[in-house]
Design a protein that fits this description.
single chain, 2 domains, three-stranded mixed sheet
Length: about 200
C-alpha cells in the first residue's frame, strides 16, 4: 500500500493530496463569503437546553487521511494514506509541529453553541478551511476514518436559513400560546388572518 509522507514528515511529501480529492472535498467559495462550521459532540446543558462546548476547544490542523484517488509510479489509481496539516515549525526540511485552531466557545459567561466561521477573503482562514475540509474530523468527508467521531460539520447557507426559520417559528408559537391564553378574543381575531388551505392555494396560483 502506497503511503505519501513518512514518519519523519519530510516537508516535500507533506499535503501530497491528489487534485481529484481536493476537488471533491474542498468546495469553492466566493470572495467575501463566510463559511460556517458547527462543532459536534458537546455536553448537553439542561438549563440552556442545547449542546455547550465549554470555554474553548482546539482542532488539530494535522491528520493522516485516505486519498482514494492517489496514483502509483505507473499512473494507476491505487489509493494512499497522506499526511496533511498546516505546519507551524519546520526544522531541516521536517515538519516538527502543526498549528491548532481554537474555537472560543464562551461569551458573557455563557457557554457557546460551537459555531464558528472562516472568511473567504482571508488567506489564513482559507488555509485552515482546506485542512478542515480534508480532515477525518469533517462529518461531510465520505472517506473519513470511522474509528473516531467527527469533530465538526460545515453548515450550508440553506441549512442556516432552515434552522433560523425553525427557531423563529418556535419563538413565535410560544408567544402566541401565551397571548392566546391571556387574550382569547384577540387570539380568535388573529386566527382570521391566517388563510385556509384552499384560499392559500388560490393566492399562490
Amino acid at each position: 500500500m502506497q503511503v505519501v509522507g513518512n514518519s519523519r514528515l519530510r516537508c516535500e511529501n507533506f499535503n501530497g493530496v491528489s487534485d481529484a480529492l481536493k476537488k471533491e472535498l474542498i468546495k469553492p467559495v466566493t470572495q467575501g463569503e463566510l463559511i460556517h462550521f458547527q462543532l459536534l459532540n458537546g455536553s448537553w446543558d439542561v438549563t440552556l437546553k442545547r449542546e455547550c462546548f465549554g470555554a474553548s476547544r482546539s482542532i488539530r490542523l494535522r491528520d493522516r487521511i485516505w486519498d482514494k484517488y492517489a496514483v502509483n509510479e505507473k499512473g494507476e489509481e491505487v489509493g494512499a494514506y497522506v499526511e496533511i496539516g498546516l505546519p507551524e515549525e519546520i526544522v531541516n526540511g521536517n515538519v516538527v509541529k502543526c498549528k491548532k485552531f481554537w474555537v472560543d466557545s464562551i461569551a458573557n459567561g455563557i457557554p457557546g453553541n460551537g459555531e464558528f466561521s472562516l472568511a473567504a477573503d482571508n488567506i489564513a482562514d482559507m488555509e485552515i478551511y482546506e485542512i478542515l475540509c480534508l480532515k477525518n474530523g469533517n462529518k461531510d468527508n465520505p472517506h473519513r476514518g470511522k474509528s473516531k467521531e467527527p469533530e465538526y460539520e460545515i453548515v450550508r447557507p440553506d441549512k442556516i436559513a432552515a434552522v433560523q426559520t425553525e427557531k423563529d417559528f418556535k419563538e413565535l408559537k410560544a408567544k402566541l400560546t401565551r397571548f392566546a391564553k391571556n387574550n382569547p378574543e384577540k387570539a380568535e381575531e388573529l386566527s382570521k388572518l391566517i388563510p385556509a388551505t384552499k384560499e392559500k392555494e388560490v393566492a399562490e396560483t
